[in-house]
Structure formats: structure tokens, C-alpha cells
UniProtKB/TrEMBL annotation:
InterPro entries: MFS (IPR011701), MFS_dom (IPR020846), MFS_trans_sf (IPR036259). CDD domains: MFS_MefA_like. PANTHER family: ENTEROBACTIN EXPORTER ENTS, INTEGRAL MEMBRANE EFFLUX PROTEIN-RELATED. The keyword rRNA processing does not apply. It is found in: Cell membrane. This is Multidrug efflux pump Tap. Belongs to the major facilitator superfamily. Drug:H(+) antiporter-3 (DHA3) (TC 2.A.1.21) family. Residues 13-411 form the Major facilitator superfamily (MFS) profile domain. GO terms for cellular component: plasma membrane.
Amino acid sequence: MEQQPTKKDPYAALRIKEFNVFLLVRFALVFAWSMQFIVIEWQVYSITKDPLSLGLIGLMEIIPALSMALFAGHIVDQSEKRGLLMKCIIGFSVISFGLFLLTWPLVVGNWSTNAVLYSIYALVFMGGLVRAFIGPTVFSLIALIVPKKLYPNAATWSSSTWQVASVLGPALAGFSISWIGVHWSMCLILAFALIAMLNLLRIPTKPILNPKIGEPVMQSLKEGVKFVFKTKAVLGALTLDMIAVLFGGAIALLPIFAQDILKVGSEGFGVLRAAPAVGAFLTMLITAYIPISKNAGMKLLAAIFGFGVCIIVFGLSSIFWVSVLALFFSGVTDGVSMVIRQTILQLKTPDHMRGRVASVNSMFVGSSNELGAFESGVTAKLMGTVTAVVFGGTMTILTVVTTGLVSPSFRRLDLRKDLEEHEKED
């Protein structure tokens, strides 16, 4: 494990060559995944013109991701991380190839609408199974590449890489749909999956740090869940972010805003979809220079409160540039939230439990993205699109206010002591 950091060097983690390769792998994989989600959203809504169908995309992914999350964490803690991630990328590539075939004009023209739609949902379901393993594997692999004292810095750059890919993936998806169509857009997705696969081969295999290899599954799962629920900082951060993401899932309704409300077409859709990630990425670059460990609890509460306000503004806007700005600033606040949450998890989680804790994280936060998409689709169907988005933002704000009032210990959360302890260990 290479390391040549200086104590307050914002680029400390980037000075580790292996970590740079890891970031390239993560970039390519997240780029491909986020681009694919947008392409499929566009294709499904173009077929159905039904907002509920967008919600069903999220539901089809969350069911397997949520059901398999804890078991996936157990497998990750018992397995060699690089090899497991390679299997996940191969699985994703197979699913992408299936979607490539389902968007082929010959198939679309000869199959019934329901046959194409249900086949897409089936592949999205399979993607949810793969996703259950990817998050915990990536989280665990970071800790095997960088020293403990660089966890906050590594979390910032890893999250920033995620955001860059989330910016470019949706943006390219929107433009590529316009330029080359849905079918050939899937070819680009397969190309980025291949890039991830080839670069992962540059990372050597890693040791398995779990001292309880062969531990019974149920006992292992119980230990992971127990750790999360007894560690108040982890539980508070995950719960708060889960509810905020659940009710702030306006992103799932962007095809409706782009096509029917703002009337900006696929190019505007790409801009809208990328705006939150642009804001989050810029925020994360700043946090590389300005650590957020001091007063982390209050900063997290303020960030999610601001996120709720931005969602309400977006829902009420009928002007394209106002909508873009609202989404941009929702990304700014979400970026702060993501860095704080990842820092809490990296600093508070023992090495041998990272897979299971990351799986619980995916249940709380990762899966709430898809559940939020489903919630948004249902409420849009029942209340109307604009009302559904405003409702979600309002619920997010109420969640923050309630958490701040009932949990003074979380308001006072400070991570500087944890960081100092890890620096002494290294």
C-alpha cells in the first residue's frame, strides 16, 4: 500500500497510484450505470407516457437490492473484494447487452409493447441483484487501498468521482438519445463497462480481513445490524438521509418535467438530470480543502434542510433556468450530506464489518433512491406531478426539523476526535 501524504494535503489520497486506478474503475462503472438508468427511463416513458411506469423502474430495482442487501454484505465480508467486484461488472455487462437487444428497432417493431416493457423490467430487476453487491464491495475495497488517516480525504475524492460520473452519464445519455438514438446509446454503456473491467485488472487481489471466515450467515447478519443500531452517529446519519432521499425523489419525474412541463426535449432533460450532480461535485471539491469533521451533525442537518427547500423551488418552477438552478443547489446540499455520511461510515466502521455496514447503508440510503422514485411516481399519479414534488420537499424539511429537536446528541456530533485517533493508529 503506497502512501506519501502530508497531514493536511487535499490531494493526499490521490498520491496513491492504486487509488487512482480504483477511481477510474468507479468512474467508468457509475458513468455506465447512471447513463443506462436515464436511457431506460426515457425509453419506458416514451413507450407508456405513464408516470407510474417510471416509478416501477425504481421498484423493480429496489426489490432485489433491498432483499439481498444484508446477505450481500455477509458475502462481501467473507470474500476477496477485487474478484467480487469483477463478477459484479461482468453481471452488469450482461444486463446491458440484454437492454441493447431490447432497444433494437427490429425487436421493438416485432414484439408487443408489453413484452418489451416487461423484459426491460426483468433486466432492471436483475440489475438490482448486482447492485446489492457493488456498493458494499466498493466501500470495503477503499479501506484496503488507503490508510485509515486518509479515509475522509479518500471518501471525498471517491464521492467526487461518483458525482463526476453522475454528471457526465446523464448528460451524455440525453444528448446521445437525441444524436444516435436509444439503441446505440446502449453501445456506449457497454464500452464504459469494458473500461471498468480492464482497469480493475490493474488492482491486485486483497487480503480478507474478517477473522470470522465461515461464520454462520444469520449470526453474521445479526452482528452487522446490531453494530449499526448501537452506533448512534451511523444510525442517525443513515436514517436522516434515507427519509430525505425517500421524499425528495423528484429526479425520477424529470422525464415528465422535460417533456410535458418545461418542454425542453431530450437535450434539456440531460441538462436537468446533470444539474444536481454538477452542484454536488463542485461542493465535494471544496470539502477536499475545507474539512467537514467539525460540527458534522449540524452541517448535515443544514444540508438536508437546504435540499428540501431546493426541491420545493424546483417543483413550483415553470422556467427552465430556474429549474436548473434549483436542481444545481439541491446537488450542492446533497454533496455536503454525502461526504459527511461517507466520512462517518469510514471512521466508525471496523474493517471486518465494512461489507455488512455498507449493506445496511444501501438499505437505508441506496435503496431509498429507488423507493423514492416509486413514491414519486405514485404521488404524481395521485396528486399531480408538481404537487408530488412540493409534498416531497416539505416532508424532507419536516424530517430535518424533527430530528434536530428530538436528537440533541446528533446536533452536537463532531468527528475530529475520531480522525485524531485514526491518525495515531497509522
